[in-house]
Amino acid sequence: MPRQLRRHVLGALTVAACVSSHASADIAIEWQPIQYDPAIVVDGAAAPADLLVPLPCGGAMAFMRVDTEARADDPLDDQRFRMGAPDISRAPYQYTRKAYIRGAFEDKEKNNTYYYMARYELSRDQHAVIDAWATGAQCPESDPKSGVLPKTAITWHDAQLAAQRLSVYARQEFAEGMPRKEGVLGHFRLPTETEWEFAVRGGTAVPDPAAFNSKTFEMDGRTERYVWFSGRRSAGNDIKPIGVLRPNPLGLHDMYGNAEEMVLGLYSLNRGGRDHGQLGGFVTRGGSYRNKSAEISSATRAEYPFYFVDEAEPFQSESVGFRLVLSASVLTSDKVIFAIEDAWEQTLNPEDEDDPNAILTRMIEQETVVDMVAKLESVQSALVSALQASQEATELALRRAVFAGATSLRAISLTADRIERAQVAKDKYLENLESAKERLAAAEKAGQAESVLNVNRSLIDKLQANLATNDERIAEYAGERAIDETNFVTSVVAVYESSTEESLRKATELLLAEMQKTDQLQMVGPIRQFSDTVSAYRMKPDMTKAEILATQPE
Predict the structure, then answer these.
(1) Is the pLDDT of residue 15 over 70?
(2) What residues pair up with 228 in beta bridges, in sequence order?
(3) Angle 124-135/156-173 helices, nearest 10 degrees?
(4) Does 1 have pLDDT greater than 80?
(5) Count of CB atoms situated within 10 Å of the CB of 494
(6) Does residue 224 fall inside a structural domain?
(7) Do 311 and 441 lie in a common domain?
(8) What's the domain count of the chain?
(9) What is the pLDDT of residue 22?
(10) Are residues 419 and 532 in the same domain?
């Protein structure tokens, strides 16, 4: 097994533990890369998968890490984003709604969470070797043409079975190489709709909300370079090999088109931006090679029955396949449980005796009538949801206020630079004007021709006009700076009044991380300076406007 290839087996990005000598040192990947990570063959510039999972019979499966912004140090923190599409004609089926996501695994250094998603749809070869291992059959012969096609014509239950079998194989054959959460082994399963849509849109690799919420992820060139859809320009009417086309921003291939992809949850309608209460068949996402290009988007979803209509046979289709995610359980240890309970108490159970939630808690504890307890708990649940929504809105408003203050601070600095440049220009104009006047006086004294004198007079007029324009510009800049200074001071006071030192610290950290991710490095300094100014004002809230402005470095 090549050294470079072995380095990526269950250890890429130093996320998973090293392969143990007794568990998986003998597990070699014998397949060619075109069978398990074709992107690195098709596109020589493509990066290898973040994680390679060995399969039976010398096979492998490629996974990509999907980061979320949910903080690792807060087990109740999750990232909110918008699912669906604002298309009224499809509103009952895939209208926009709020969704929340958190990865199962934690990155302590980056203080965020993540999960793994298969880079490609499960191929026929991959399914065949998993099935052979589970049933005790001989390793199947690989077909160079059909083996790299997505595994379709499989039921939803059998897709679940494949995930279960791979989890068992991984736990038996290379447990020490599997990613873990608090020491507990991860497992393979179908992705949830939330995980699938967050990943197809590009996750944290697409920080611009407009781009993230667009119909499809941004494509450099024609759609057929990224999507297998119906028609002669693309797939025609045939399913295609995995990983041939270009990936999405996370390096995931064929999320749109080729095979529709089954997900974990059951189908429900959308009612006014929330899930409807009735559950139906299973869900597929992304469309297939049978869909027209215009029908495929990040919000595309469909329902299929578990069984053919009026038949006993489980439903399957040549256009329906799946890909897996690698995740983990939530309650993995006492340590995790204690952290969750502490976070719940800190964020949702105020100590204020006059707080409505605290009052409801005491009423529930003292109530003895079962029906009344149930009603009170229902009221408290609604209250807690409202409190959490209010808290999220407050945190978002604080981040926006800090950013606005930092923007004013940066504007002050930029305007000061413009004033300084204009003042330098003024000094130069005055110097040139004085020289021109001296030359005119000398020419007049020497009795030079009127044409020569007129040239000097014209130059003087031009310099005086430029000087007047420059003075107007300085006055305009000074006016802008006065407005920016007022906005800055107003923001300092507003943030001080609407925050604590801890909430300001968290808001600042989140903003700085966002600036780094969105490459807005010019805002890093102003955000830090604004936060420091608010902290200084908190220590001395009777500071005057001049004193607040004086806290800024020259």
Answers:
(1) no
(2) 257
(3) 70
(4) no
(5) 16
(6) yes
(7) no
(8) 3
(9) 27
(10) yes
Residue-number span of the structural domain to which 527 is assigned: 392-550
Contact 190, 264 (CB under 8 A): yes
Contacts of 37-44 with C-beta under 8 Å, sequence gap 24+, read 37/62, 37/119, 37/243, 38/120, 38/148, 38/241, 38/242, 38/243, 38/244, 39/119, 39/243, 39/247, 39/251, 39/253, 42/243, 42/244, 43/246
**Token digits for 229?**
């859809």
CA distance 292 to 419: 57
* Whether residue 57 is found in the same domain as residue 101: yes
408 occurs within a structural domain: yes
Q: Are residues 367 and 463 in the same domain?
A: no
CA distance 490 to 479: 17
**60 pLDDT higher than 70:** yes
Residue 374 confidence (pLDDT) above 90: no
Please report, for the domain that includes residue 508, its CATH number: 1.10.287
Task: Indicate if the pLDDT at residue 350 is higher than 80.
Answer: no
Report if residue 342 sits inside a domain: no
Same structural domain, 354 and 425: no
Q: 394 in the Ramachandran plot: left (φ > 0), alpha (ψ -120 to 50) or beta? A: alpha
- What radius of gyration, in Å, describes the C-alpha atoms of the chain? 32
What pLDDT, on a 0 to 100 scale, did the predictor assign at position 354?
60
**Structure token digits, residue 174:** 């290379």
pLDDT cut 70: percent of the chain above it: 92
Q: Is 14 helix (H, G, I), strand (E, B) or coil?
A: helix
Examine the pLDDT at 220 and tell me if it is beyond 70. Answer: yes
- Residue 434, in any domain of the structure: yes
Name the least confident of 198-202, 405-409, 418-422, 550-554: 550-554
Contact by Cβ (8 Å): 10, 19: yes
CATH of the domain at 159: 3.90.1580.10
Same domain, 261 and 407: no
Q: What's the rounded mean pLDDT across residues 436-458?
A: 86
Q: For the whole model, what pTM was predicted? A: 0.65
* Residues in the chain, overall count: 554
Report the alpha-carbon distance of residue 299 to residue 88 in Å, rounded.
13
Q: Are residues 30 and 8 in the same domain?
A: yes
Q: Are residues 293 and 355 in the same domain?
A: no
User: pLDDT digit string (tens) for 176-214?
Assistant: 889 999 889 999 999 999 999 999 999 999 988 889 999
